[in-house]
Design brief:
The complex is a heterodimer of chains A (185) and B (417).
Chain A (H helix, E strand, L loop, with lengths): L11 H6 L4 E5 L2 E5 L5 H9 L8 E9 L24 E9 L4 E9 L5 E3 L8 H12 L2 E3 L36 H4 L2
Parallel strand pairs in A: 2-5, 6-7
Antiparallel strand pairs in A: 1-2, 3-4, 4-5
Chain B lengths: L11 H6 L16 E5 L11 E7 L2 E8 L7 H5 L8 H5 L6 H16 L5 H29 L3 H22 L8 E2 L2 E2 L5 H25 L3 H7 L7 H6 L5 H4 L7 H4 L20 H25 L17 H6 L1 H12 L7 E8 L4 E8 L5 E7 L1 H13 L7 H8 L3 H5 L1
Antiparallel strand pairs in B: 1-2, 2-3, 4-5, 6-7, 7-8
The chains are: A alpha/beta (185), B mainly alpha (417).
């Protein structure tokens, strides 16, 4: 079988540089886990990698582990105090190297009252919309993003709909009528 | 490790500084740019997008693209439905080529469950996905033609598309939203007559393509609107995460069907057409060539499709036959458990991608072992193109928005989910 994902044996230099990186393998796909403080170095590492330069950022998304009982997230069982847990959100990056046809998935955790991670916009322009979407849906702030505002929902929307504590049948306040004459100035 | 400093060229201030400054043409009494709202109710915006353009004369100096008018919370809905009942929502992503979305979703689930589909099913899915791609490209090409004023090719394309859709109707019972795929198989096997008629329809499409080439390819009006308009370089396109025909028009031969073969794409002969300049005309031509290649794949599929069962033996994920449900207690319990609790996959996360009609369509699934996805994320190809489209359009004239936006083939359902 041909290989499309970068597994642990393919990238010894990565684990040399990031000795604290966690690694698991599921369904033949790698899950590389690093602390969010290392993100800048990681982006720089993969963008300019000598063997597998990751020139395309395929996707960024997030997962809210508020009410889960995964082995990796043992402390979160949906209690009130878990709302501001430091490991509540996972931000998941998928990178793709066009020239060598290899992929990798990188995961980092964030949380707290105002979760935030570093934006990858400076390295990949693809991040412009997808980071705005993650902000919109999960309320994770991307520092260094040029224009972080909602993209799918409207500006007056309250809350972040893909969080697990957002109610399924939640109601939104009415939006005030806009005055186009004032807005144009 | 934490004292790593971001290299100067990646500092956000530097990145923003590089933004190209467009020299304003000499303006008359109005030297201030004028804001113009285009859409969301505009025939060329395909119903679901708004653009706020700043104009000086007719030149666009700034553009803000606002998607989201068709956002239905599909991902949130899928987190609250069983895997089986989330299937119809995937149809509504790209409703012009729903089979591809369907097969992408169940493909991800089959990888999760570890189910291997049968030969016949695999060939049938390849055939249907390619026929879907033809209809999707027809729609896009037809829209481009009609938007720049060519009504004849529009009607030709629409007629040809409807022949295929009516044919799908025969197989699945719906023209557009089929919900035809099942985990480990499909809802209903295709008959011999159906395959024969499909072959006839596909062969009828070849003279149509010749007609369209004759009408458009050297048409002066068409060339003026398409050539040299909306160019994007290879590096920019890759950096912006653009995939599909859009990326291939710039000369990068990245196609998921070739780069990461799934179904039967490695057992049929076909080419990956690429463009050169990445402008509107290249995108048009790459799509035209892709239709030809898809017809080629389809004809091979019809010839090679073997006899045999179409559904895999996977009762833990696949609804049992109705005869079993009504006559045996095991079948009844099986059916009941699957409908109420949903099929239960192992824990874990995976990313499965297929080549959608507009680019790489990815499904990122997180399973917590229950019958409902803990998280289902769709990587929509049009959404990423929409994020880069403003850079392409800025500097062109107002009328160029229409053909540039047309060649993107943005599908609202997929872009906004």
């Amino acid at each position: 079988m041909e290989k499309y994902w970068l597994l642990k044996d393919d990238i010894p230099d990565f684990f040399e540089k990031f000795p604290h990186a966690g690694y698991t393998e599921q369904f033949g796909q790698p899950n590389v886990r690093i602390p969010k403080e290392d993100l800048a170095e990681l982006f720089d590492f993969w963008k300019n990698h000598s063997k597998y330069p990751m020139d395309m950022l395929l996707d960024i998304t997030a997962v809210d582990y508020l009410s889960s009982d995964f082995a990796e997230k043992p402390n979160l069982t949906g209690r009130e105090e878990d709302l501001y847990s430091e490991t509540r959100f996972d931000v998941v990056y998928h990178f793709y190297s066009v020239s060598t046809n290899r992929r990798i998935r990188v995961i980092t955790s964030c949380g707290g009252e105002h979760p935030e991670v570093l934006s990858s916009y400076a390295w990949w322009k693809a991040a412009y919309y997808i980071e705005r979407e993650v902000w919109d849906m999960f309320g994770i702030k991307f520092t260094n993003h040029p224009e972080l505002r909602r993209v799918l929902m409207y500006e007056e929307f309250e809350g972040h709909p893909l969080r697990k504590d957002y109610p399924l049948m939640g109601e939104q306040p009415r939006v005030k009528l806009r005055n186009p004459e004032q807005e144009n100035d | 490790m934490t004292d790593f400093e971001i290299p100067a060229k990646y500092k956000i201030e530097e990145v923003l500084k590089k933004k190209e400054i467009i020299e304003l043409p000499i303006a008359g009494p109005h030297d201030q740019p004028i804001k113009v709202n285009i859409g969301p109710s505009h025939p060329a915006m395909h119903g679901t997008i708004k653009m706020v353009a700043e104009l000086v004369g007719e030149t666009i100096v700034n553009l803000d693209v606002e998607p989201g008018f068709l956002h239905r919370g599909m991902e949130k809905t899928c987190e609250n439905r069983t895997y089986l009942s989330a299937l119809p929502y995937t149809d509504r992503l790209n409703y012009v080529s729903a089979f591809i979305n369907n097969f992408g979703y169940v493909g991800a689930l089959e990888e999760l469950f570890g189910i291997e589909i049968t030969e016949r099913c695999s060939w049938l899915r390849t055939l249907l996905a390619e026929m879907s791609r033809i209809t999707d490209h027809y729609t896009c090409q037809a829209a481009i033609c009609s938007e720049i004023g060519a009504m004849t090719p529009f009607l030709y394309f629409m007629q040809a598309r409807d022949f295929i859709w009516e044919h799908f109707n025969w197989l699945s019972g719906a023209r557009q939203t089929y919900s035809y795929a099942r985990i480990g198989g499909v809802a209903k096997d295709a008959t011999k007559e159906w395959l024969q008629k499909a072959k006839q329809i596909l062969l009828d499409n070849i003279p149509l393509l010749k007609d369209i080439h004759g009408l458009m390819d050297k048409n002066r009006i068409f060339l003026d609107r398409m050539q040299g308009v909306g160019e994007i370089s290879k590096e920019d396109a890759i950096n912006a995460g653009i995939t599909g025909p859009f990326l291939r028009s710039t000369g990068v031969a990245y196609d998921v069907r070739r780069a990461m073969p799934y179904l039967k794409y490695d057992e049929v002969e076909w080419e990956v057409p690429v463009g050169k300049y990445g402008d509107n005309y290249d995108r048009w031509y790459v799509r035209m060539r892709e239709i030809e290649e898809s017809i080629k794949i389809c004809l091979q599929c019809i010839d090679k499709i073997p006899e045999g069962p179409v559904n895999a033996e996977a009762n833990f994920a696949h609804l049992p036959e109705k005869t079993e449900v009504y006559t045996t207690i095991e079948g009844l319990i099986n059916h009941f458990k699957l409908v109420i609790d949903g099929p239960k996959p192992p824990k874990g996360q995976l990313y499965h991608c297929v080549e959608g009609a507009n680019g790489e369509l990815g499904y990122y699934l997180v399973s917590d072992g229950s019958g409902t996805a803990y998280r289902l994320h769709v990587r929509p190809p049009s959404f990423l193109i929409m994020g880069a489209i403003d850079k392409i359009i800025i500097g062109h004239q107002l009328a160029d928005i229409i053909p540039i936006f047309g060649t993107v083939n943005m599908i609202g359902g997929e872009c906004d989910r």
